[in-house]
Amino acid sequence: NREMIRLVLQRASTDELFEKAVEQGMVPLLQEGLRRIENGETTVEEVIRVAYTGSGADELQVIEPTAQASFVVPAVESEAPTPSFELPSVDTTAPAPSAEPALQLESSGPEMICPGEKVALKFALANSGTATLSDIEITAPNFDPQWRHLVAQLAPGQKEQFSAELTVPECEDTSFETDIVASAHFGTTPVEARSTLTFEVAQPALAIEKSGPLRAEVGEVIDYQFIIINTGNVPLTGVTVTDPLLGEGWSYTIGELPPGGMSNFSMESVVPEGLSGEVEMEATVTGHYGNIETFARDTFKTEVIENIRPEISMELTGPESARVGEMVTFRFAITNSGTVDLNGVKVTAPLFGKFWCNNIGTLGVGRTVKFSYSYTVPETAPSVIENKAVVIGFSGSNKVDYEAVHQVNVITGPEDL
């Protein structure tokens, strides 16, 4: 074309002619041979024979130009140092061959990643165009902004494969998608290729629940229950439970726990001396996913008392004497004299009837309930009326009771006055 003719007339060097030809789309014979080797169209031996001996060029289908510029260099005269050339006519309607720069990028990595750790990613970069590319840079801006990989040049059809360790960014979602970007230049023309990677984000997590009695006595043997659940999306190893209340250095090893897996167990412990009032007891579970440790805690509150003593008392009063037909009033005072609340508290008194009962219900520690009941002395009453009353209450399965008696002398005539 005219550009090449201009360089020839200017006596350009072979290197300048070669660079201009490549820039305008010429594919060197050796490069064309390498492309055909990759495509399975020929062999390495055949390319070497053709490229370095000059024979067998037709077998690589090297197309010769239809019009070749020729010129005659005239004799150089000292009076006329500038040469003159005779140029054949050039067909300017034929289009010049055009270069098509293109880049292809593929990337791969593990299915699951964990924030903060380093992961190995693999990359395959290929020049899929017809022009040589230079200043190639591969980056992962949304994954590891500090990382980059540089390639000086890639000829058409040339590939480069490599791997690199990148630091996983912080991510709260269960999946993470990022673009790997490759950028290059063909002269002043920028070329870019992208590859998208999608990862599942590892989220190790545990949950623990501790339960037991709400009230305990110093020295009492009580039973604690523990429930451990892997609430994350990765398997955990070295799962261990600790609880200072069960002893210094005490631990319970579960071992491996898959996602969604659960383990439950119970432990007996004696409430130690020195504890009293409301006590918070914290249990901790720890587990590992690779080098990452995860943990969870649960706090259980219980009331520790020095001595659990369910006890109830009753005071029963009334008149010392009464006449037949007279209405007398008996007074009751029921007191929780123990150290624990009582439930199901009730008073019975057969004098008032076989099925007579006064239900009090729950009676707190130190609380007193008072009531009265009136009774008419019958004509058939004995000389002494005995009112025997009983109060009962419960602390868990423990029953307590108390009996009180009050006697009334019955006046039947004037002689008794």
Topology, pairings included?
Elements: H1 2-9, H2 14-23, H3 29-38, H4 44-53, E1 103-108, E2 112-113, E3 118-127, E4 133-139, E5 148-154, E6 159-167, E7 175-186, E8 189-201, E9 206-211, E10 215-217, E11 221-230, E12 236-242, E13 251-257, E14 262-270, E15 277-289, E16 292-305, E17 312-317, E18 321-323, E19 327-336, E20 342-348, E21 357-363, E22 368-376, E23 384-395, E24 398-411
Parallel strand pairs: 2-8, 10-16, 18-24
Antiparallel strand pairs: 1-3, 3-6, 4-5, 4-7, 7-8, 9-11, 11-14, 12-13, 12-15, 15-16, 17-19, 19-22, 20-21, 20-23, 23-24
Helix pairs in contact: 3-4
Descriptive notes:
The protein has 417 residues and is mainly β. 9% of the residues lie in helices and 49% in strands. The chain contains 4 helices and 24 strands. It has a 5-stranded mixed sheet with strand order 2-8-7-4-5, with no helix packed on it. Strands 10-16-15-12-13 form a 5-stranded mixed sheet, with no helix packed on it. A 5-stranded mixed sheet has the order 18-24-23-20-21, with no helix packed on it. A hairpin with a 2-residue loop joins strand 23 and strand 24. Helix 3 packs antiparallel against helix 4. The chain is rod-shaped and about 165 Å long. About 8% of the residues have low confidence.
